[in-house]
Write a sequence for this structure.
């Protein structure tokens, strides 16, 4: 993945990316429930002889900040394979994305997201999303967690890349 410099904004091209994941409906106060799925997914992969093919992510499918959000916790894989139970397989879509990299505590991701949305709006870059009765439905709005907490316990040093698919 081509990362813009921290705090900078860029349009990048990304290929399709197969993944395994878990989807949940959460609120802002229960967001930890989906984030807590990431270590379990990585363990699930290793138990089956697979390794992650990239950084884990949270993918926001439907967003209504006042009520609920539909969010996927996912881990990229080299190629699709059979899954079961609560674990699902999928493919993140190829295309052009607005992107920025945030270095710092995850609490700063909201401001990083607002900055990216504002920049894209000022540049006339429309996102691949549409409104629904449940909130905004996004084609691919992803937070990629580049830092392994086991290697970097200082959350102020964590690196997260935001990639939001642009309309074709």
């Amino acid at each position: 993945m081509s990362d813009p410099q921290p705090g900078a904004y860029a349009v990048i091209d990304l290929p399709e990316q197969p993944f395994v994941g878990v989807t949940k409906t959460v609120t802002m106060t229960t967001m930890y429930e989906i984030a807590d799925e990431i270590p379990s997914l990585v363990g699930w992969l290793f138990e089956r002889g697979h390794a992650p093919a990239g950084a884990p992510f949270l993918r926001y499918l439907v967003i209504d900040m006042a009520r609920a959000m539909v969010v996927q916790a996912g881990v990229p894989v080299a190629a699709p394979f059979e899954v079961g139970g609560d674990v699902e397989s999928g493919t993140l879509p190829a295309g052009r994305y607005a992107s920025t990299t945030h270095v710092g505590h995850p609490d700063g991701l909201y401001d990083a997201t607002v900055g990216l949305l504002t920049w894209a709006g000022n540049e006339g870059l429309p996102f691949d999303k549409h409104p629904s009765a449940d909130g905004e439905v996004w084609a691919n709005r992803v937070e990629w967690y580049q830092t392994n907490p086991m290697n970097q316990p200082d959350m102020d040093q964590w690196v997260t890349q935001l990639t939001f698919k642009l309309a074709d």
User: Anything to note?
Assistant: The longest strand covers residues 135-145. The chain has a mean pLDDT of 94. Strands lie at 9-14, 17-26, 57-63, 69-76, 88-92, 95-103, 129-132, 135-145, 159-165. The chain has three helices and nine strands.
